[in-house]
Fold this sequence. Notes:
Layout: H1 4-11, E1 18-23, E2 29-35, H2 38-47, H3 52-60, E3 63-68, H4 72-86, E4 102-105, E5 113-116, E6 125-127, H5 133-146, H6 161-164, H7 178-192, H8 197-212, H9 216-232, E7 246-254, E8 257-266, E9 269-279, H10 284-295, E10 306-308, H11 315-322, E11 326-327, H12 332-359, H13 364-374, E12 381-390, E13 393-403, E14 406-407, E15 413-416, H14 426-443, E16 451-455, H15 458-471, E17 478-483, E18 489-494, E19 499-501, H16 508-542, H17 549-558, H18 562-567, H19 570-574, H20 580-600
Parallel strand pairs: 7-10, 10-11, 12-16, 16-17
Antiparallel strand pairs: 1-2, 1-3, 4-5, 4-6, 7-8, 8-9, 12-13, 13-14, 13-15, 17-18, 18-19
Helix pairs in contact: 4-10, 4-11, 5-9, 8-9, 13-16, 14-15
GO biological process, one term: nucleotide-excision repair
Function: The UvrABC repair system catalyzes the recognition and processing of DNA lesions. UvrC both incises the 5' and 3' sides of the lesion. The N-terminal half is responsible for the 3' incision and the C-terminal half is responsible for the 5' incision.
Main location: cytoplasm
Amino acid sequence: MASEHIEHKLALLPDKPGCYLMKNINDQIIYVGKAKNLKNRVRSYFKSSHTGKVAKMVSEVADFETIVTSTNKESFLLEITLIKEHQPYFNIKLKQGTGYPYIKITNERDPQTKITGQIKKDGAYYFGPYPNVYAAEETLHFIQKVYPLRRCNGYQHRPCLYYHMGQCLGACFKTVPPEEYDRQIQRIKSFLNGNTANVKKKLIAEMNQASANLEFERAAEIRDQLHYIKVTVEKQKIISNDKTPRDLFNFYMDKGWLSIQVFFIRQARLMKREKRLFPIVDTAVEEMTSFILQFYNRPNNILPKEILLPRGLPNQEISEILGVPVRTPERGEKRDLMNMAKENAHLTLDEKFRLLAMDESKTTGAMKEVTDALGLPAGHKIEAFDHSHIQGADPVSAMVVFVDGKPAKKLYRKYKLKTVINHADEAASTREVIRRRYTRLLKENQRMPDMIFMDGGEVQMNAARDVLENELNLDIPVVGMVKNNKHRTADLLFGDDDHHINLNPRSQGFYLVQRIQDEVHRFAITFHRRVHAKNSLASRLDAIKGVGPRTRTKLLQKYGSISKIANASVDEIHSLGINRPTAQLIKVSLQGNAEVAKGSSHD
């Protein structure tokens, strides 16, 4: 049921094209969509029943905004810009780049062939992308041997080694006529376009001759070259009689999930396939359109000469935005390939559903159990903190992040505490790390977590709440994780009265809290051990006469541990710019310490 605020806004929606931005209770944009008619589209979210990701998104919407555009095409462009800027949780988001290499013929006075992962508008010729990286590299080596261009760095007054090997046309010591390069480039382009018959015939003859001469290593090398040509250049499936570079998209949708297949047709054959799966909020047509436009908005994704799409997508608008022809095949091999892409999308989604059934209860289901037990609205992101020190020495804090019940390790953060006077003061440690973390998020206008978990009970929980509410004016739920006398997860603390929330110890929600608590503790302890070991080493070096800050830094950067310094020779230590008497003293002092430490480890 829509709130009164939303009902009022729905009544004011215009009958025009544009984009809409759905926001949650924290004013964060959680979904961006486009529509030919904003009034009809936005109202449909609140006036119809939904399931899956749509229902989940609508349940979190507390407000929305609309941006009217002049045309439907403008709404396409605006939507892609807004998704890129805000990275909303419920939108399809694509990873940057394809990750596949291309073979490039450079646009230079003395061109060369090379492997590259970057597509630039530099006038060069690009072939690919190639799904088999190793085979692409071997094919490049083959081209450099059979169709040489330039392999040296350019003019150097004398022939290079590659020239003597027949793999360079001689730019190293002479002016190579452009006509000679042009002839060679035409041969390379013909070869990479699949015209391999003559080269194969020659290689097979050489392989047979090598085998007859009992030169089995040479024969095996030629056999491998033939294999690389087959997997990289030769025809996998003939698609058409012309060699127009094409990308083909098709999809299958079921139960709120969209399965997409992308076929890359190069040199008249199916060169590579990509598959993507997304839970979606909008219609399949809208989400597919958004996917395609984002797909070509990424770096390292070169546009083909033609795009093939299934019936029902806005071909004209996509063509105008991307600047290439967009067609729907009606018959022949291209239609058969379109059907094959849809069948593959169907099979991929069926497999995903089987895996989802096993995984969902452990992740998003567990997250919902936790938020329900706490009486909080649905959330996705938890940031958890823990501190570590040894009798107050070398205090550190660590933060782990779980998104929809799964650890997001790229978001983890480590903190060396700087302002805590009493290093065993858990409240002061908490205040510092919470202040540093969320002041930074505010300055960078970054998205806040839905919940904060503190490993330490009431003291840490209340200290965190104090900083958030009284210093930063933030309203983020703070939850304390409690352990029993066996130092194992017991329950949660929450609310103004710090009351206990007892989760079923056999529930997935309890296991999620346990995973979070164990992970943040592990991360904090591991970080502390490294800091303590480094500081301990620094203090032992400081105790040696003649070792100052600069000498200590040199030793730490070069060796990193007592045992490695102790095992280094006096000459090696001296080579760092340390005078020989001091190097000898370091060696003697640390060698004794290392032997004592080694002996004590066997006690």
